[in-house]
Amino acid sequence: MSEAEKFVLEMSAEEVAAEPVQAFNSSELQAQLQQLKDEATKLGSKIDSLYSSVFVGVELLPPAVRTQGEADHKAASEAESAAALQSQLAEALPDPSRLTEAGFGELGRTAPKLLAALIKAKEQANPAGWLAFQTEVSALKLQRSRLEREAADVAAVLEEAERRQRLAAGYDEYEEAGKAWDASQAASAAPGQARQTVKVVLITGFESFNVDLYKKAAVALARACPGFSLRVFSDRDLGLRRAEVEAALAGADVFFASLLFDFDQVEWLRARVERVPVRLIFESSLELMECTQVGGFKMAPGGKSKGPPPAVKKVLSLFGSGREEDKMVGYLSFLKVGPKLLKFLPGQKVRDLRTWLTSYAYWNQGGLDNVVSMFLYLAKECFGLEAADAKPGEVIETPATGCLHPAHPGYFAGPAEYMRWYEREGPVRDPAAPTVGILLYRKHVITEQPYIAQLIECMEANGLRPLPIFINGVEAHTVVRDQLTTTHEQALLRSGGQTSPSLSRDAVLVDAVVNTVGFPLVGGPAGTMEGGRQSEIAKAILGAKNVPYVVAAPLLIQDMASWVRDGIGGLQSVVLYSLPELDGAIDTVPLGGLVGDNIFLVPERVTRLASRLQKWVALRRTPPQERKLAILVYGFPPGVGATGTAALLNVPKSLERLLETLRAEGYDLGEVSDSLEGAGEAIVTALKMQEDQRAIAEGAAGILKRGAGPAEQYGARAAAADVDPKQLRAMLTYPPEWGPSEWGPIPFLPDNDILVQRLEKQWGELGKYQGISTSARGSSVVSGIQLGNVWIGVQPLLGVEGDPMRLLFERDLTPHPQYAAFYKWLQHDFNASAVLHLGMHGTVEWLPGVQLGNTGFSWSDVLLGDLPNVYVYACNNPSESIIAKRRGYGTIVSYNVPPYGRAGLYKQLAELKALLAEYRESPEANEALKGPVLELLASAGLQEDCPFEEQQAAAPGQEARVLGAEDADSISTEAFAEYASRVYQYLQVVENRIFSEGLHVLGQPPPPDQAAQYLAGKRGPYFGDDLPPEAAEVVAAAPAGES
């Protein structure tokens, strides 16, 4: 076992926080790493030597003249072409014996035709030699890749070990500094005298990555000011070390907290910090921030005074744009100059407010020096404790917002300045490359979190031009609104449409916006000053831009291991999914998570994000006539004629309306007929024809041979393909060179064929599988109906008996091979620009994987890949549509449910109700009605629904008693009257039960009579009698779009 493997086995995620790291032999790891590098270098030299000999003596000769008649102009032209290539070869490769692997690759990039001719000449001159060269080089490259992967593993372990040792050394200093906490006595000083000791409890939430920085500050403070003690905790300690946190709070003079939002944690803290004299809570939940208190300044409204003094309110009102949603941004502007302005306002409360503002300025600017100065300042201002040789320094400022790039020192003032630099010196200068605005959390930038540079470089490696903009969080909407623009917004401006009046003249054109902060776009973590959400304002901003808005971020509450194991949950899901979705965010991709207190990326997830962005941008840029669209309908349950159905939706008619709209929008539907009336049913019939097992056994040829049946008269044709096991294996296999550089520090390093392994574990070896939609030759058959660039198919069956939704909860299960081949074929062979799932609902979003927060092993992520997914879903089922949105990357387009009405009672039941009403008026006088009531009950089949039970319930072990007409005389009047009342109440429930009438047709408004049912009347479920009938009729009769 290697030193790296030994270290990994011994390493625990909590060791750093609990005890010093045991010493390890770094010299052996260094030696192992160097040995691997040396071996890889030797293999590289061997590969270069093979390249240096393979083309020696190879000449690009003109083709031999085959007959006398061929010695003509064509032969002469070919000879000239060969001679020209030979000349180019002499210039590009004057000495073939000096060719290397890198030179071969460069020749392929700069002169691909020349290289192809050279390879062809080598194959013709010495086919056996060329084959031997390829075989040997491939084997050596595989060996080198393995060595490089091992070297990367060892380097990662070595780096982590050294980091832990550094942390351990720092941890010992922090523990030593913490001894002063236990030794000090927090006694109140006499009036006019300074305190000798000050104890501070600091708890971080979303900035747990700063725990190490705060511990360094605690060490520095203990040295500079011996009476000052700082205890540092993260929000996770509120669960793991709650008793220790509680004991520390009991003896604290100052409570400092930041970025805490969990409701249970907030409530627990609120009950325990009330007795702490000084409380500073920044950018946390409003309930916790209300606990803020510095002297006479309190954040919570109290008594007759609300908030800051009137003079301060007046000063504060001068900052910001005046818009409600911009108040927090104006507030941050005030924070920068507020302490200086407040010098000139009288009163102790103003002084206390100035203390709070100055403390916030120190914390907001970040960095070790600012944090140390903040606590020195608090000790002096609040407790009179001063260090002889350490004074609080001036706030060291960094910009509130700006742009950055790892290849450029310092910051750019804004997007316009950044883009001018990037177009000159940026790594991706192709003007056609999509430009993506990336909102970064400023705290991460000023603390130089390594993941930021990695994120930017990974986006560039995937062909995107990143525009990284750092913000505090609350300015996200102003940056997007004022500093970024789009082609859509510029078109609005030219046509006089409504856009933001504050849009900057030098706003930068972007193709998408990625928010790595999470939370709402307006207000970010803090929200507005009133604490109200501004989702409508966010929608207006994003609607004007009309480009993909994606929230994708590393997890800052949850660690990497729990995400990969259990998925995202709790507050992390609210921050990353729930709140941004209200603004209109799509395609959320978790990019990494915490390992200890440090943030790490999973580059494979960044690649997934980048590929989805590329596809969305390509969809926008591609003219409609060139877009290729895959439309999927459903056929569940199988074998009962359910193909082409969906809940509450008329799929054939909706399909017709959809095709008509696509044609009107310019999509290529091939030689489609002028009239599409009946095309929907014809296409569904054609799709059912393709379910014939005899045709499937023959493979794609069998499907094509049977044609498209009745759909052919509308210009449709059958389309089919065979995906053989080798192709499917390649589609599901990650690149062989992938290692820690791609997967990051997830809890395990997957094999590149991990998906194939899991598939074969359940379904057997791919090459031998003969199952669902598989041909006799073992290929997965993918079939559908095609009209030009529009392909229509039936989503494959899950192939799991019983409850198919258990796929979500049994992660060892996988979709069957043809299911995987189906979606992969859409991406790789059909090359779909987008996929549209028509109706509620399909199954791809329910495939195995973590329940929330797709990883590279979640099957819904694997199969949908980079495909934009437009999901047409019923509006009355948000709980399941949100699964389609989150797990299936669905952009939800809701369709209305059919008009609802009251069920009412048909003739037999209406007659029964009337008889019961008459009987109940006078049971003694209407004894003769008991027989007819029981006869009607029997003929209506209601006896089992309403059994007669004299004592309200049958005796244990006995069936409920059912009455017949012959039992009328044997039942007492009192018992039958009670029974009649129960049956009458049951009929009232049935009569008023709501049900849907018919099926909805996509894009087709209901006729006036059905629209009226939505609104009012005795049968209307929404307003009942609250809406006057006249108003309902006017609204229902209004033309579409005018109501």
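Above is the first protein from milestone M3; the second protein from the same milestone is given next.
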Amino acid sequence: RAPEPDPQNESERASKRLRVIQPAIPEPGPNSTAEDDPILSTPNQNEDQPEYPFGLNVIADFPYLSDPKIPWGIKWEFGRLASQRPVKVSDALLADLRGTHADIARKLRQVVRDHSQKRDGTRSDKPKPWSYAARESAVTAPWEELDREDQAWDRGLDEGIGLKMEDGWYGGKVQFSVKLDWDEKRRAFKAHLNAPTTGKSTHFGRAFHSRSCITMRITKNALKQPKLKRYLKACHRFFGRDFYVLDAATDKVTLVHANARRPNHDPLTETPEEGSGIQWMLNYLNPMEFNQQQSVSKWRARFQLYFSDTVPGYRVELGRVLEQDDLELPHEGAKCPSEKILTDGCGRISLDALKSIQSNLKLDHRMSAVQLRFFGAKGMALAMLGPPFEPEEPGDIILRPSQIKIHMDDRYVTDEAKLTIDIVRPAKISTPARLSAESIQILSHNGVPTSVFLELQKKCFEEDFGAMVDWPEDKPLVKLALAVAQTQNVVGTRRTRLARGMARARGLTAKSWDEVEEVQDEADPEADQRSSAWWPDDVSGCPSSLAETCLVNLQAGFRPESLPYLRQKLRILLDDMLSRYVDKFKITVPYALTGTLVPDPIGVLKLDEISISLSEPMEIDGRKVMILRNPAKQETDVRKASLVQGFGLTPSEQEYLLCFQVKIVNCPRLHQLKDVIVISVRNTDRSLASRLAGGDYDGDKAQVILEEALVKPFRNAASDTALEVPQCVKDSFKSDNGSIANLLAEKQQNEAKFAARLSEILLLPLNVYPGEYSIFHELAVYMHGLGHQEAIRVGHMFTEGLDGSKTGKSVKEEIQRADAQRYRRFGRVTWNRGREHRKKAESNEHHNIAQHQIPRDRHLPPFVMDKLREAGEALHRDILQRFDDRIKRDTKWKSAQTEVVRQWARAGRLRLKQKECDTSQKEAIEALRFLIDAMDVDSSEVARDCQPLDHWMQAISRAINQVLNRGCGSYAADLSLIYGAIVSISAKHYSLVNGNGFNSLDIVSRQDALRKFSVEFAEAVPLDDILTPLSSAELALLKASCAYSLSSKHAMTTPQFAFSVATRDLCHLKALSGPSQTVSQEFIDGMSLHSGYVEDFE
């Protein structure tokens, strides 16, 4: 049986198991030299070996840029621009490149133009009134951040590591990246430098400066080349510095500067062999000598700890780093299987440290646990409860052996970077929860009727989309605006955009920076500046995302029934959201929550009990509960239990216990652990987390479902057969995964062979796609049923292969071929052929979408996912039809506007006819007649919101009065000038958006193309070119109103043109039609409608 801690003496025993980690005295190595460079290096080479045994790829290296006064970021950006536009090297050019990043970057493009071999006549002193958006630049531009890193680096105080500056600054936030492609004509690889940008911060970047790390993304075409690995093994030179691959993923590698050293690094500590290649870096980050028991695959995977998305949270003194044994069940062999480790991946952290982390991250909620990286360890750290619940421990953090992935070289255990806790994300509870497609299938297999899912699906669609298809006719559309903001999380998206690489650590997103980073097409080297994905255009005020576009127009007072532009955007948004809901089978469970799993720290919970203490009260609609963890593949991955309420707690600290046997438990000793799911450590066969799809406690999340309609009919799997990996699955994998000890033995025998083997190991994950067996599992479940042995087998094939890059396992070729022959011909299972799948199928002529009919066992009932797909598509069509019907039935806003426009046009013509005989006025009269004709809206058209149009009409009316009363045509001439300039811009805009390929561009390229028109529009018709005395604000409004007028009749104008170039001014004109308040953009971005206010308003 598992150990059952005695509350009275468990703390004493735990204290005895604590060990203080102490440093060893480092042994000095031989002398090594250092280059005169901001980053110190040790260029010693072993004379018996070539300097570059696998070759040298010179990607970007200009000898004339070796001047140390030219900053690294400027070298990078200059190299990116000059590679497409060759320059003439001169002393004047080098003088223009010296200085700080911030000073040089602003003029760098013009410097390249001025010194290019093909001059385009652009003058460097030409004013550019509309430059890169200030707000966007302040968040995304890397130049000031690089200057600050350089300054901190020069001071030599390790300030870039973080937690040393009053404002909380830390380094490593700038991303340098390269796109590697295959040039078919040259039959060679070609690397394209991308513009640097701010983004995630990594441990490596903070320790060694942002410039010491480069991400190389590899195109699909390059991945297919058999020479790829040979190319990547070589040294890669960038601006005089040598970089090597240290980490790899499916389609990218991470390059590090081989000679990167921190300013306070002592070269005397290095050994002779560490002077070449990346040997010193390997020993500093993940030394082989101290990790010989690891497999080579796991050793390689540990480098990811240094390149993951983290922020510095707390610095620990070495004497306050403790180690404590894991709680383990009895097992065979020296190494305990992970499923028998009851505390697998979870240590402890002091309350003072947690409070400091909360302050550093500027969190507005209390934390009980945090996911972290520290001292070669990873996983969760759960709060120490302290007296009277636990004795006070003499440390800030307690690590368990299951957390420690890298044993450090004794020379570096006092390194400040290694003693800094890097935060991945805080633990928190979120509610409600959404069911995944896998969990729906398990619930259905285990007894939940299909009708329950259909009812929940219908309720989810109605709650999320009802307000978007039904709004009042006579009130501002605050409820519609709230629905758009909430369903698309607009404010949260804006916060994530501002937080950039800190978003995950602050709990704003569950995704890492690499998951949300936008993949961009190759940049136009002639472009003045690239925008950042999904940022609004500061010149025009036009948002980039559909949701923000709809929200901005609704907030100004526009209505979809009267503004075709808004109606079109809103319908596209609605259609996209509905498609995602249908394709992803999004079903919201109101009475459910998602939280992080942690083990009971003091052993008071009984067998299979789970404690949840919530910071905010949650209404409980039943006592039966289920618990699950994604990805759930087997029938045993969802468990049913009973919920009992704890006693003696205040309503805000209500504690609930989840038991497989109904037990009323009073556990006040755990109520301090807020917003985590605390699990008993008294199981007798395996940890409860491992029962949930093979989970552990290093950051895994689980869902607790209290929805009675789901819980009541559910029954647990009849047996635990599916928990164990079948022997046939174990036999289906091969492993060439030796130990590090064996690899070091190879090194002693053959140094060259060892170097080649090491390069192969570092590239193991490249071009490996483990997801195919997930598709096979979907097919097996559909064909045979979830409990069938084949479905169980394929499910375990997926889970076993998922971590192949860590375990070194790969499916045997004969097994892979047999499974591929069995399943590939079907493509995706029918219910999972959504919009994105169909798009891919249409773009790939060899894509197999439905070549064969997928057979299903005739004894099986109708499949739940087929029913949900069918019902979801019906709901999709119904909601879109309700939107169209709502537009059609509202005629109040149409007739009034068409009549206003037509009456004004008729009146203008009658007044002008009176003066047509006057020759001195004919030119002005003809110009005005043309403008009036352009405004004549056919009453059969659906009229637009006329408030912005009124501004232009009033201007023409004033011009008519001027001609009639004073015989002066200057105002009419100015209006004609404005009209002509805007027609010209709209025609170019029309050609762009209706051209081939525009919609297939990435978001940044589309933004850049459209922003050119907003700049051209803003610069069109300067104040100096018009005769009429107008302010710049009046002229801007006049141009916006004119652009708005073109969409009524002009053939070469798109409906979105006016809003693409003048959203802010058009919304301002519209808001003036009623009570309004001017608010700056910084305040607007953080504002959200309160649901209570909307209810009161309605």
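Note on the second protein: The longest helix spans residues 864-889.
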